[in-house]
Structure prediction request, 731 residues.
Amino acid sequence: MKQPANQTVNVRFAGLGGTGVIKASDIFADVVFRAGHMVKKAEVHGMSQRGGSVQSDVRFGTEVHSPMIPDGTCDFLVVMEPTQVEVVRGGLRSNGVLITPADIATAKLPSAKALNVAMLGRLSRHFDIPEQVWYDSLRAHFPEKLHAANAAAFALGRNS
Amino acid sequence: MHFSQDKSGRLLLSGNEAVALAAWHCGVALGTGYPGTPSTEILESFSALGGKAQWAPNEKVAAEVALGAAFGRARVICTMKHVGLNVAADVLFTMTYSGVDGGYVLAVADDPGMASSQNEQDSRRYAEAAVAPLFEPADSQDAYDLLQVAFEVSERWKIPVIFRLTTRVSHSMSPVKPRFPLGTRPPMAGVPQPEFVRDIPSHVMVPGHARPAHRRLRAKMAEMEIWNDTQGPNRIERRQSTLGIVTAGISYHHAREAAPDASVLKLGLSYPLPLSLIRSFAASVDRCVVIEENDPWLATACRAAGIKVEAKDDAIFRYGELNVDRVRRILAHDSRPDPVAPRGKPPELCPGCPHRSSFEVMKELDCIVSGDIGCYTLAALPPLAAMDMMIDMGAAIGMGLGLRHVLPREQARRVVSVIGDSTFLHGGLPGLVEMAYNPPETGHVLVILDNGTTAMTGQQEHPGTGRRLDGSGTYRVSYEDMARAAGIKNVFSVNPIRERAKFKSLLAESLAKDELTVLIARSPCILAAGRITAWEKERKAAKQGAVESSAASACPECGGAGVPGAGEGKL
Ligand SMILES: Cc1ncc(C[n+]2csc(CCOP(=O)(O)OP(=O)(O)O)c2C)c(N)n1
Ligand code: SF4
Prediction:
């Protein structure tokens, strides 16, 4: 962990309905949980299926109280949709890390749908969590026919 | 179903999943309810775990089915969102008198801040008004643990209890240590066995029985309050004595983070309030603050009992949900307006949604649209702006008729009532009867938007889909037959996308006549269409005898395991 050991780490996923925000946050919460952390996750989805703004907060550490990240304290902000960056940027703490699709070589994605997994790959570089835990969780969250494409997307993000 | 699990066997569950797992582990014989965000996933998860779970046409019916099961000495859970309790209020207010013979948990999910609701009513007031014990879990583990206590209390005092969740408890995930390993069938020892025992004075609430029942109820609550003071599921956490916080539900976690050094009294059973416990806690700290969302229910009750507590400033903090920042401000007496968050993108009807086409046509015909609740309510937002009113489920019909009765003729003839299929079966049927019973002079037109699913809450089945909660096939009600049986003269069904011109001309003709018309706009929700088509195919094949009869009962998607609402957006 490249964060102080006893502090809560705040990771917010944001985007529009249908861009895989909730799925990415589910996988991330699962990964840190498997890695032995206390974790809480909260999400706000208006009518997300119908293209509205979606946000999902994951907080982990040794002790986590509120499942919602307080204003301006995101350590990581993962935004799946370029148009949403300015809407949510205020949530980031001053030295926090912003990850957007611009950080991914999207042309090399096995499918546009796998962007959220590639973004997880990019995020994964910031944590000392064995690579295998990420791959295990990815497999648990997708049907088998998508495993290879997701592994490729994850590697693309992790190595970009 | 997939649950995250760590090495020690803890599961990462949403509050709703935790309630479902607890219900499964408590040996609940039947789960019933009506979908409504944020409560919907309780029954879906309970079904996926192996429990018997079913959707009722509305919350009142669900609560009554549950009551029958509880009269039959079973453990039962009934789920709904906060406004659902309005629909079920009639049964609630008298079943507390009658009491129950099994265990009855009414799980109600409130929505402070209205992430996906038409109001932010506070169910705690229902508990007090109807005299029902009220449990308020703070997170998933708490929900899992408290549900067992809720059944114990329900059975010990023979009373239905309310299990109040809120959006942030229902939809947040946190670890749960279950009592039994996943995948095992819990032992049924100690779970009441269903059996009919005649008890007319308890179960028939005529005045002569209800008068003593009311006194019995108050006596139960007085006894329960004493128990709650000393043995209830409440917890005092002693830290510094300068500040004490009395709280329940998700507010507990916000308060712990906002004031880590404060002493805390966390309530689990908040009605009947453990007033002696609160009194002694308040006396043990220099300053005692009540932290609660929405109504000042807890603070008012404490003050009425003469306990000195501070309450939040309701000019600001009564509205919307709390969070860590807001709790910090409450504690600091900072009542400046909330910072305005930048506006996100509002949702809109999916591209290709059949509702879009229906409302475009109504707009072209300059209709006055008395609308209802569902995905189609999005048609009220610009650019369509084609719905003129929406209040509660089923209201489209009554409101449309009322307009027709009073408006000048040329306006009255433009009025259309528009209602979704699930909403029609939920609250529209009495309106349909009213339409034929008290027809306006100009007649009336009712459009039923039959998209084959309860789309808004994540595509649940309902009596018009021909499938049950677990995907198994069942009788499919016909809106056409219902309308004719109610006495409606003109009944048509039409596909608003493929037969758009026909839909438009039928609607125009119906508006021009002084007659009663029901127009069924039938075209599947595009998110559910694949599943519906696959099922229709299977059903047809089964009918032709090409498929084993059992295959027809399995949902093609899940093989009968139940389809916990797919996708992200469940309202
Ligand atoms: C009393 C009550 N119960 C439940 C809800 C939640 N809810 C809102 S609309 C709706 C049903 C929507 O289904 P339908 O009428 O078929 O329209 P669709 O979303 O499919 O277009 C539900 C369950 C509510 N608002 N009020
Ligand atoms: S989910 Fe279905 S009913 Fe709702 S907007 Fe999308 S297509 Fe329309």
DSSP finds 22 helices and 19 strands in chain B. Residues 354-527 of chain B form a domain with the Rossmann fold fold (CATH 3.40.50.970). The interface with chain A takes residues 2, 4, 6-7, 12, 115-116, 139, 168, 171-175, 250, 253-254, 256-257, 323-325, 339, 341-350, 375, 378, 456, 458, 527, 567-571 of chain B (CB under 8 Å). The two ends of chain B are 21 Å apart (CA to CA).
